[in-house]
Each structure stands twice: as C-alpha cells, then as structure tokens.
User: What shape does this take?
Amino acid sequence: MNKNYSLFIIIFFAIQSLNAQIITGTITDQNTNESLIGVNIISENGLGVATNIDGKYQLKLNEGKQKITFKYIGYDEIIKTFELAKNETLEINITLSPISEQLNTVVVSAGRFEQKIEEITVSMEVIKPSLIENKNTTDIQTAMDQIPGVNITDGQANIRGGSGWSFGAGTRVLVLVDDMPLISGDAGQVQWKLIATENINQVEVIKGASSALYGSSALNGVMNIRTAFPSQKEIDKNILPGYTKVNMHFGLIDKPKREELNWNGDKRRAFKGIEFLQAMQLGQLDLSLGGNIFYDDGFRQGEVTDRKRFNLNSTYKSKKIEGLSYGLNANFLFQTTGSAIIWDGYDRAYIPLNNEITTTAGDTYNIDPFVTYMSG
Assistant: This one.
C-alpha cells in the first residue's frame, strides 16, 4: 500500500474520532456492586454495544437528543434521555436492580384446595395446554402418554404399572373434568372422547393411590382435567376479556409396501380435523364455547371414524349475593366408527371377511350444573 494513502486513512479516522459524540461508563449490580458483563446499551436509532468483562462500555452517537436503553436479562431495564453537544463525551454510570418473577403452578387435585405444586406431599405431574397443542392431538390419550410412568393401553390408563381396569369394578384410575368423574355408568370405563382438548387449562395427574379422597376408582391414581375460562383481569373498560383459538390439521396415510395389501389403489387415505374455542366474559358471565370436528378414512377398509364434539362451560357470579356463583358445564359427542372383527386372509389383511363392517354409532352427553358459595 502507498505510504501517502496509508497516512491519509490514519488522518481521516483521527478527524472522525475528534468529531464524534461519545457516551461511556460502567454498569453494576445495585445489590452487590459487581460489574455486569454483556449488558445491552441500545440507542433509539438502532446503534448499540455491550459491556465488556469489566462492565464498561463506549458508544458513539450522533449530535443532539438521545434516548438510550440499558437492558439485561434478569434485571429491570433503564431508559435515559439526554442531549449530546458536538464532540461531547458524556459519562453515564448505571446500576441495575435484579428482578425475579416466579411462575407458580397451582393444583387442587391433591387436597381439594389450591396448593403450589412444590408444597404437595404426593407424586404429581402437571401438563400445560401448550404440550397438547404442540403434539397436534385431538385425543387426550396421546398427551397422557408423554407423562413418565403413565401409559394408556386399549383405552385404559395405567400408572406405574398398576392395574388400570378390572371387570366388574371398572377403572382404577379416576378421570375427572373439573372434579366431575367422566366414567361410564355401565362398565366403569373412561370416556376419553368426551374430553375437550381444545378447552384445557391444565391436566393434574396424581401418581399413587388416592382412594381415601376420591373413592375406589382412584386406587391407581387420579387424572383431573381443568378447563379454561376467560381471563379475570380487566384490560380495558370498553373491551371485554376473552380470546379465540382455532387449530386445523390434515394428514395422509401412507400406502402399504406390499402391493397385495394395497386395497385402495392409488388413492391416498387421509385424516383431517378442526378444533376451535371461543372464551368471553359478558358482564358477570364467564362463557367458553368449543368444538372439535374430526374425520379419518382409516388405513383398513371400512374403518372410518367420523366424530363431532362440542363443549360449553359457563359461570355466572351473582351481583346480589357476594361469593355465590353458579353455572353449567356440558359436553356433547356425536361419533360413528367402523370396525371389522375378522380379516379376509393373510394376503388381504386390511380387508374384512365378506366385507362385513360393524358400525358403532352413538351420541354421548355429559351435563354438569353446579352452585358454589364461598363465604368470608
């Protein structure tokens, strides 16, 4: 490089540095007075730096009014506004105060009253709705399989290898929806299809015998599904709290590798569905309306599932009597399922013998009116 050219570059940057407006300083912890490494110092126009190992920083800015934000994870952010004159170097030392926000999971299944999960004395798991949504499941059984020590076999829940169901006695894992048992009256089986996955606040699973609190159906444990309601926080006096949620899914079923089992030809079987939830607060009334529509062609001939499920949750808080609330929770299931008992043969395993398909159709309803009064 030409010596004259190199000298020109050095002089140019020296002049630029002389004409720069700079803020500098040190950022420390308010409680310990220790230097903080990696604090972000960001100007309004997007310029920014981070503090070094000694908590020091230096930032070049334009002349005039400046708005600077000091941000660090786990600390309250600070915003400073000041005026910078031409060629001015301003020292700004900042102390950030740490903040901690603990998000407590509250459960009610272990003792029939609200407790923090870390305070209960039984082995317990809590599933949040995000897990159910991320798994894209329309059946709560799929989400339950994610819990360690819990598995569902042939529609029956088993916790830590315990007996999930026995003839004549029914289920040994009690399944509740808002403290209401969701078990058939005849065989004592869990009505999984009635549980609205689109309207779940959290699922509380007690791993272990809870028959002293819930009866003989809870000899192997309890699964309590708690439904969601509109937020009780008032965001704006002119805007009612609430939210809308819609999920859709679609999938294709692969063709068998063995051509003799491919009874459907080139046409691909599919499954598809949509679920929705509308939660709103209308004055003293909390109202949630949800539904799930699902259709599955099935990979075996004639085994088609057509399911429609709708749910309603409502709570009305009395204006006249403080502490009194009442409402109605309801689930409605309309389902048709095809199934075959005997298949046509080894080379026609997905085709029923004599094309005989047993179609099971039935509607199931669960209606739960309630009244709650809390004094004091």
